[in-house]
Specification:
This protein is mainly beta and about 170 residues long. It contains 2 helices and 9 strands. Strands 1, 2, 3, 4, 5, 6, 7, 8 and 9 form a 9-stranded mixed beta sheet that branches.
Length: about 170
Amino acid sequence: MKSRLAASIALGTAVVLGATGCNMLAPQATTIQYSASDGVNIPESGPLKVRNALIIADADGTLGNFVAGIVNDTDEQAILNVSIDGESQSIPVDARSSVSLGRDTAPMVFENVGQPGSDVEVSFQSGEGEGVVRNVPILDGTLQQYSTLVPTPLPETTTTPAATPSPTATPAG
């Protein structure tokens, strides 16, 4: 009788450990933070948090529109500095507010970002933070939600030489 009780307890313990033991060895997928969209999140760039950062580029990557949500949880205005391949641009974000680049504000357009489908190294810095460099995906306007964000080149200005006055005859007199 005692051996049957011990065997039942051992079998029950083995079933419980076999069914739930994976949680002790494998990380739970719900605890892994990731960017659940096309862009990437940059939380450690200083007091400002950058959400869903991506670049929408024209077909050859000559121009790229930096698109992101920027959140300021602090009580003071802060400035986000964004740099791509030596070209830097900044945007102020008011205290306790957020900005949606590409929707709330004028686009932040960079030159020679790279081909759509690749990544580009982007530097983010705000406040007293050192800043971070992250790879940001480059997309094109194939998807409908990005079609209006593709940058268009500025129209080329052509200069026309000023017309030279034609000589006029002076009346003899």
